[in-house]
Amino acid sequence: MSVSVPEPVASFIDRVNDHDEQGFLDAFTPDGVVDDWGREFRGRDAIRRWSDEEFIGARGVLDVQSAQPTGEGVTVVGDWRSNHANGLSSFAFTVEGDRIARMTIREG
After folding, report:
1. Cis before 8 (ω within 30)
2. CB under 8 Å to 49, separation ≥6 — which residues?
3. Which of 20, 31, 38, 71 stands the most exposed, by the fewest C-beta atoms within 10 Å?
4. pLDDT tens, 72-91?
């Protein structure tokens, strides 16, 4: 990753790109949320079911193009490539301590 991304999001992206499902799930708070274009998945079990089809299970890789710190985390824009979906996407992360509380995916 050539763009500087703060922790814990940088390690999270590494886990995603390595297709490390457990590391991906462990990066979230127990009640973490993924908002994938308006569809919300709350808690690790729901996130796992979503990810099995559309994220880690789809062999996704995120090539980070930019990262912008926000008051509560960071927004990363990158080229997402997977067996499910492809294209420039925005990933807004809300961070609580060393975990991700929310990841919101939208068009980049």
Report:
1. yes
2. 41
3. 71
4. 999 999 999 999 999 999 99
